């Protein structure tokens, strides 16, 4: 099967979706399939990579987001026609929804992966009152389901907004590279800092509004107020970086530039005592899973999908600095927390995720074949 993947919201410094695309593509090929990918530039127009053939298309920068989007529908259609796939997989639920209809006209199956929680976005990030915001999200979700043959969500939380509308949505959890993201030592032998020693924290998540990174900064402020000798390292980029730098002035917070070498990133994250994952609308939480694979337990919010992913590998807390600070203190006290973090991460792997994605594609293909015979 030749699977064409398309994604708009990826950039050279983005995280989860780009990681998922790369991992799925590599495993699709390892399992005997052909994979192509269309994403926004910059970069070489066409490149052969371990994940397959990558087409980078000119795109328009969107101010304040860190993203550039592909808008040329005619040009994209011509490129997709030339690629001539057997199946379409779209990691975007808004700007490229028309591609499902393109696939239908060509007689091939289409799968849309819902990486965002539309209800949460409409309620939290628009001025629309809650009730009409939910109605609008439901309308968008029903239209997505109409345009594609199958919907895939990375968590039960992400799938719920489809299920409540009577829409079937496959739940396919993402994975983690368990060979790259590894503990720096034996997590079973981890010894927490003694009283008075420095506690090392790491922030998980892009520095953008939907990830609520300010909660991590305010957690540090609360721990300092309680008298803890603490330092937080923030990895990642995003439109809120400058504001967060200002907000963390006079606090023990260190901002790292983007680290493209995943082994180096794993080594630095693995040096932490506790991770902080505040994103309330995560449909999975890959950044938190990667740091847990390094043997570092995570404090996560009780909103969104993070609690599904973190499980026994951390502490679930309400979204307040005091509650998150309580979680940090609890994980420092809790015996075996680092070993449990790694064990929880080992439940997720990319090969199993890719196999489940391929099963969805195969199911769609069989349904279309039965429809033609009928």
Describe this protein's structure.
This protein is α/β, with parallel strands linked by helices and 374 residues long. The protein is built from 14 helices and 16 strands. The chain is globular, with a radius of gyration of 21 Å. The two termini are 23 Å apart.
Can you give me a brief rundown of this structure?
This protein has helices spanning 16-30, 73-83, 98-106, 118-125, 130-147, 156-163, 214-225, 241-247, 262-269, 286-293, 306-310, 321-333, 337-345, 350-373, and strands at 2-6, 34-40, 46-49, 52-57, 60-62, 67-69, 87-90, 109-113, 150-153, 170-171, 199-203, 230-234, 253-255, 274-277, 298-301, 314-317. The protein is of the alpha/beta class and 374 residues long.
Write the layout of secondary structure elements.
Layout: E1 2-6, H1 16-30, E2 34-40, E3 46-49, E4 52-57, E5 60-62, E6 67-69, H2 73-83, E7 87-90, H3 98-106, E8 109-113, H4 118-125, H5 130-147, E9 150-153, H6 156-163, E10 170-171, E11 199-203, H7 214-225, E12 230-234, H8 241-247, E13 253-255, H9 262-269, E14 274-277, H10 286-293, E15 298-301, H11 306-310, E16 314-317, H12 321-333, H13 337-345, H14 350-373
Parallel strand pairs: 1-2, 1-7, 2-4, 7-8, 8-9, 9-10, 11-12, 11-14, 12-13, 14-15, 15-16
Antiparallel strand pairs: 3-4, 5-6
Helix pairs in contact: 1-14, 4-5, 7-12, 10-13
